[in-house]
Amino acid sequence: MPLTELPIEKAFMLIEPGPVLLVTTQNHGRNNIMTISWHMALDFSARVALATGPWNYSFNALMSTRECVLNVPAVDLAEKTVRIGDCSGADVDKFKEFGLTPLPGKAVRAPLIAECLACLECRVADYLEPQGIFILQGERAWVNPDRKERRTFHANGDGTFAVNGETLNLRSLMADKIPSGV
Amino acid sequence: MPLTELPIEKAFMLIEPGPVLLVTTQNHGRNNIMTISWHMALDFSARVALATGPWNYSFNALMSTRECVLNVPAVDLAEKTVRIGDCSGADVDKFKEFGLTPLPGKAVRAPLIAECLACLECRVADYLEPQGIFILQGERAWVNPDRKERRTFHANGDGTFAVNGETLNLRSLMADKIPSGV
User: Fold this and answer.
1) For the segment A112-164, what is each residue's pLDDT rounded down to a tens digit?
2) Which of A75, A103, A137, B145 is most exposed, with the fewest beta carbons within 10 Å of its own?
């Protein structure tokens, strides 16, 4: 599965729509994955905020390795994505358990998930402790152009998920707000 | 248009899917609206993070009044929502310009938008200056149960928007992760 590099100035587009993400880490040589919906773009430089805390097994990996990859699953991975979020890396090797393929990145040791639509390699720039917010800096971004199913999905918070339907193009109404190259 | 109160413990569900939002403020008696996609839930108590800064006209209103309302537009408001984001409250009375109806809230002076699907009245708890992140605390939440068009939409960052399509129900796979009452 060949991944194509996405120019880093377009990487905020992976985050801005608010899809469910799979966050991968590697700690002491061991890969892990967590599911997260609480994230947002911070600017057009691929700076991203992520809300989590010590109750997540991945928290220690994020704090000690200062790295992760944000992977964007398509809807054919929805059930796996939910199951990944419902077990802990303390008990399970999630790549093995869920039949996912780790690929090496270029900027970080945390693995890309080969089955995802896109992957953003990130460094942890900061953790804002009282608010429980990680500040991530995206470094390299990748997309899988050959994937057939490309619809992402969004958590409603009650166990239901909204799958992307039609696309509206309103670019002509906001041309001056779109960064160059996007 | 009668609004129904949404229990505050369900208000994170308005934010978690990542829809485009309309943020209303009232400063010196003057209402304003900004369009934003960079937001995330912080917990199940309706605490929300919002990324913006002094380049937005609403920034001063947020800082000085310490209040706002997060309004969720449905897709029939998509064109207005984009146009609202493409002009400044410094020049335009946006409620008047876009034919929207301000309604009084219960917790804050900032207005609810009658035409939206749902509204979350918020207090500004903090502004994290170096990161450009507002921390909001949702206080009262409202939904418009009579609205026919209920699909929300998500910004892709390039002037295109993903409209909600089908809903997946995976609740049975994550029952233990869903807060009580949701």
Assistant:
1) 999 999 999 999 999 999 999 999 999 999 999 999 999 999 999 999 999 99
2) B145
Residue ranges of domains in chain B, CATH in brackets: 4-177 (2.30.110.10)
Q: How far apart are alpha carbons A139 and A116 in whole angstroms?
A: 18
Residue B166 in contact with partner chain A when CB distance is under 8 A = yes
Contact A101, A114 (CB under 8 A): yes
- Predicted ipTM of the assembly: 0.96
Q: What is B81-139 written as a DSSP string?
A: HHHHHTS-TTT--HHHHTT--EE--SS-SSPEETTSSEEEEEEEEEEETTTTEEEEEEE
Whole-number Å distance between alpha carbons of B99 and A176: 23
Q: Which residue of chain B has the CA closest to A150?
A: B162
**Least Cα separation, residue B20 to chain A (angstroms):** 8
pTM of the model as a whole: 0.97
HSE, CB side, 13 Å, CA atoms: give it for residue A136.
31
Q: Is A181 on the interface with B (CB under 8 A)?
A: no
Query: Does residue A20 sit in helix, strand or coil?
Result: coil
Beta strands in chain A (DSSP E): 4-6, 21-27, 30-36, 39-41, 47-51, 67-72, 102-103, 112-113, 118-128, 133-143, 153-155, 160-169
